[in-house]
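Thread title: Can someone regenerate the structure for this chain?

I was given the following input by a collaborator and told the matching structure tokens would be attached. They weren't. Posting the sequence so someone can regenerate them.
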Amino acid sequence: MTNLDYGIIGNCSSAALISKSGALEWLCLPVFDSASIFAKLLDKEKGGSFEFIISSDYQHTQRYLPKTNILVTKYSNGNDCFEVIDFMPRYHYHNGVDHLYSPPDVIRYVKIKSGTPKFRVNYNPKLEYAEKQTTTEVRQEFIKSFTRSGAYDSLYLYTNIEKEKVVNGDEIELTQDAYFLISYNQKLLAQSIERSYLKLQRTKVYWLNWSEETHRFREYDEQILRSALVLKLLSFDKTGAVLAAATTSLPETIGEIRNWDYRFCWLRDASMVIKVMTQLGHWKSAERFMNFIIDVVSDKDEKIQIMYGINKEKNLKERILSHFAGYEDSAPVRVGNAAYKQKQHDIYGILMDVIYQQFLLFEVSLQNSEELWTITRSIVRIVSKNWKKPDRGIWEIRTEQRHFVFSKLLCWVAIDRAIKVAKLIRRNEYVDKWSKLRDTISKDIIKKGWNEEVQAFTQSYGSKNLDASTLLMESFGFIDASDYRYISTVKATQKELSRNGLMYRYKNRDDFGLPTSSFTICTFWLIQALYKIGEQKQARELFEQLLTYSNHLGLFSEDIDFESKRLLGNFPQAYSHLALIETAMLFSTDIELKNRF
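Best answer:
Regenerated them for you:
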């Protein structure tokens, strides 16, 4: 059994996953959702990788440079020792105005620590998802890999190590520092060890400065910062989009077919990420995301999708890469995501929640304010027309529409936040009309969502099935934590859906049968809910336990196996890390408030 023991590096244009042993096993260039360059993650034989091959007497350890997204893998046999420092360049440079340099590059800086280390390199790029053959040739300035058939693609490797030794996998004796620069583009300037070292230092300064701007907390500060750094890596600077995860088709359960491409921007996930990032002090991310929303919902009659491509694409046609075996032989491997066609009413409430936050916290430019106000009124119009209709729900049930309680709740949130925005900008003529709609939705949820027999708000109207999403009813302001119905819902949901300290999303059968792994964010939701209803000791114990299930670098995926506790699903998962931050902030803020008064 293997775990998702990977580190992630990136520069807000793309990202790479590097295994615990230092193998680069996932990289898409030039951007996150491009075709893969290395994909051993999804097929050990065909996917391609960039590995350091060492003798059995070497041991390896891995860590991040503190407060950065720079990953260090150390190899040592006691006498001979070297480090591979992996990063994607990202730093400010000055040329009249301040710009960010974030090229489609990965630099693997090899630093000699002691002795005379020896290793071999397995450099095996497989372009365009390895659908066609990749040819690799040594040229004068670089090693070039390219496709001869199908879609043309190419890749360049620059290094100060003898190129033939790299390509042939010959033994390399390290007597001085070395570098490998993988680039999607051919470089115009001559590359050198000095230039790579300078990029390393500049990138380190960038991440240290970014971390310094992140709000600090008395408790769990290290976990909050690492999660914030992950969320930053999953943001796409060019458009302001936020990805759900950096990967595709990592299975929710080994051997099953719940495999999806998460390299897209779900409005729900992204809005929740932006709300958290704003609370941590990173307002520019919110500004960029608001501009993304304004661009994708540019027309007043625009149908708002649940998700978009990171470059604002609206058609995310799904196809299967049948030549890939899949992670741990869990096929199919999908690219694209057909869920973009689904109707999910909850997106309106979560989007309105973050729009309200922007109005509340910041002075928005007149242009931005007017556009966001137009979107607010469009959302109210859409919700008023559709809230009574069934949908696919937060969990994206593909074959059945229902009246999901969470969807109704978020329709209520959409109208509630729209009313709050109207009050802030003194458009009181909308308040009375919208307040009636908000009250109507609230009464509907109370009447049809509450099940007297179960003594809980259930997954959908008329159902006895429970759902972890109802745990969020208090945090969205629909119900008070002291309300007996919420307390009862929390306890009933925990009893029904908790297993070995982890939570199911739900236990009723869906399109693919019974869910068999824990959806990570749901356990964080339970912890928050327990804390709010007064079960603080239990909540903290569950939180401490859950933190131990991260990988060796503190990273979480989408799912966790109930028995083995191995990480499953796409990785690293924005949803999981934003929930970790929210939960840790809940504990830490409470400590600070108690000490203040």
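Residues 574-596 form the longest helix (23 residues).
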